[in-house]
Design goal:
single chain; alpha+beta; Alpha-Beta Plaits; flat
Amino acid sequence: MSYYLVLNFDVHDPAEFAEYGRRAAATLPASAKVLVFDSEPRDLEGRSRERLVILEFESEAAALGWYHSSEYQAASERRRAATDGWVRAAPGFSVKRA
C-alpha cells in the first residue's frame, strides 16, 4: 500500500532551502514520486504555509527508511534551518467497491 510524506512550510532562507532541495533530491529512491510541489497555495479553507510537498512511497517501510536515513537527515538539517513548518507521514488507503 502506498505511503505518503506531506511537508508544509514557510521558507525564510531561500538559498539554504535551494541547497536542501538539491541534496534531498539526490537521496530519493527511484521508486518515490513527487506528487505535489506547490509554492503558490490556493487556500480554500484555513491557511496553508507557502510550500506544500507530497511524496509517495511504495510502503511505510520505504518512506520511513528514506526519511530516517543518514543521507536524508543530513540534507534535512538545511530544511529545518531554512524553514518553519511540519512533516507528516500518512498511509494511503483503498476503497472496496461492492
